[in-house]
Amino acid sequence: MNRPPRVRFAPSPTGRLHIGGARTALFNWAFARRHGGAFVLRIEDTDFERSTREFERAILDGLAWLGIRWDEGPDVGGPHAPYRQSERLARHVELAGNLRSKGLAYACFCSSERLEALREQQARDKSRQAYDRTCALLSSEQVQARHAAGEKSVLRFKVPSGSTTIQDRVRGEVHFEHADVDDWVMLRSDGLPTYNFVVVCDDIDMRITHVIRGEEHLINTPKQVLLYTALGGTPPEFAHLPLMLGTDGKKLSKRTGDTSLEDYQSQGYPPAAVANFLCLQGWALDGSREIFTLEQLVANFALEDVSKGGAIFDLDKFRWLAGEYVRQETVPELAKHCAPHVIAAGLASASELEQRHAWFEQVVACERERIHTYAELPGRIAWLFCTDQDLAFDAKALEAARKHAQAPQTLREYATWLTATLASSPSKDELRTAMKAWVAARGLKLPALFQPLRLAITGQAGGLDLVDAMELLGHEQSLARIELGARRLAG
RNA sequence: GGUCCCAUCGUCUAGCCCGGCCUAGGACACCAGGUUUUCAUCCUGGCGACAGGGGUUCAAAUCCCCUUGGGAUCACCA
């Protein structure tokens, strides 16, 4: 590679950013950075029906959220503007006209009914699925006459005889016989160009050197290589990434799970964890280090190291990885990231959290090793925000507490003892030690107090240290819950 | 069905290109144990794979062929 590479990510703004698309973008970006090249963002908005500016904005935001920056794009401009395909229409039509006048493309008047019948016939014959070139045989006079008569036509690319071999950077050599390649449609009957056509026009005009995309495009590649040559361009290098698969082993779709980046964003996955995990689907740093930064990705990324086989989206591992990132954060950072989810869950308002900022950070510090994503926090700490009467008792926690026949009595006596002990303002460690001594002095095992107490305070079966829990809740309210818990257990 | 791609533990993968260091390494999940007031974190250990068959070679997870299995794609959608 003698010149700095230019790569592009070309999403279609007809929906949210697909998680597989996000990975494609990430690998393109990493490749560009690795080799000091440019990463171009181009919006493929030629589907006027479904494309919206809102989706475009969301896609850009999603990429930025992941930590990807682009050198050229619709928002930042660049030397090959415009970066929205719809704004390049005139150029596409011009190039299509050139090919037609050179005899490299031809008008086709076949009706969709005839085409469909042809396809059915070919399916029955178990033969090649392609246009039969009926209209390629029309003389220029015939074509002109039919145009003049007002007949609708599409423009088809005339695939020459021969074969094409591409050197795919992840797959190696891939060979196609032109006899198997269809005379595909370049211009629709309404005069608008198709994807296979514009993508090549724009890649040539934008001087794209490496096309890195999903494997579903591999089969389109010979069509595009042929078009490069026809347009007088040099084909770029290609790299076809393995597909991201659902648990059913098929291309990841909404059927088998959440597919958009925003789904994971709203579920509170740290962005660095998402980027890291996406890398792991099809690429490995060295086979032993699972957790790494984007800088390490850039420093080590090579297309040749990308896996060829599809990767089933491993949600368990993703969640584990998110937890690793959560625990890497400092408490103030984590509190800041969790706060929106606590607010969204309706536990507290933004101003309430702001007022109790130091307290909230303590809460986060106590729960940080139990959550994997930011959004898991509210469910774990709801007991701190509800009224004593509304505290729900978890079935397992209740069962555990009920195993101790004397639980109500133990709780009441403990409350009395606690009230007296608190008077001397013990430290948390002193209180912990004293509590255990108190239980032992009564000839009880520790769970005889701790299980009913945990139920009374938090309503949950497991969780944070109980001395921490009571302090976070406040001793006065804790005593009230102990009394209430004793009554509920006795009843 | 045509064309194309792929094939290492249940999952993500290292090793393959440049055969021997592989009685195949790591991670997630799972199981067992330790720590803990419980849960979680953390620590220790365990389970667990080269799809099958032929070659080539002194030697094959690694190279070649076949079979089988899986996937992608076959639009006037991108």
The CATH architecture of the largest domain comes to: 3-Layer(aba) Sandwich
The shape is: elongated
Largest sheet features: 3 strands, antiparallel
Instruction: Compute the average pLDDT.
Output: 95
Which spans of ≥5 residues are poorly predicted at pLDDT below 50? none
The strand count comes to 11
Tell me the helix content. Answer: 40-55%
Radius of gyration: 32 Å
Largest sheet, spatial ordering of strands: 3-4-7
**CATH class membership of the largest domain:** Alpha Beta
CATH superfamily of the largest domain: HUPs
Structural write-up:
- The protein has 21 helices and eleven strands.
- By secondary structure, the protein is mainly alpha-helical.
- The protein has four domains: 6-83 and 244-312, 3-Layer(aba) Sandwich (Rossmann fold), CATH 3.40.50.620; 86-241, HUPs (Rossmann fold); 329-384, Orthogonal Bundle (Helicase, Ruva Protein, domain 3), CATH 1.10.8; 395-490, Arc Repressor Mutant, subunit A (Orthogonal Bundle).
- The strands form five sheets. The protein has a three-stranded antiparallel β-sheet with strand order 3-4-7.
- The longest helix has 16 residues, at 19-34.
- The protein is elongated and about 105 Å long.
- The protein binds one RNA strand of 78 nucleotides through helix 4, strand 6, helix 6, strand 11 and helix 11.
Question: Would you spell out the secondary-structure blueprint of this structure?
Answer:
Blueprint: E1 6-9, H1 19-34, E2 38-41, H2 53-66, H3 89-101, E3 105-108, H4 112-125, H5 140-148, E4 154-157, E5 163-168, E6 172-177, E7 185-187, H6 195-205, E8 210-214, H7 221-230, E9 237-241, E10 244-245, H8 261-266, H9 271-280, H10 294-300, E11 311-312, H11 315-328, H12 331-344, H13 350-355, H14 357-367, H15 377-381, H16 395-402, H17 407-422, H18 428-441, H19 446-458, H20 466-473, H21 475-490
Parallel strand pairs: 1-2, 8-9, 10-11
Antiparallel strand pairs: 3-4, 4-7, 5-6
Helix pairs in contact: 1-10, 3-6, 6-7, 9-11, 12-14, 16-19, 17-19, 17-21, 19-20, 19-21, 20-21
This protein binds one RNA strand of 78 nucleotides through helix 4, strand 6, helix 6, strand 11 and helix 11.
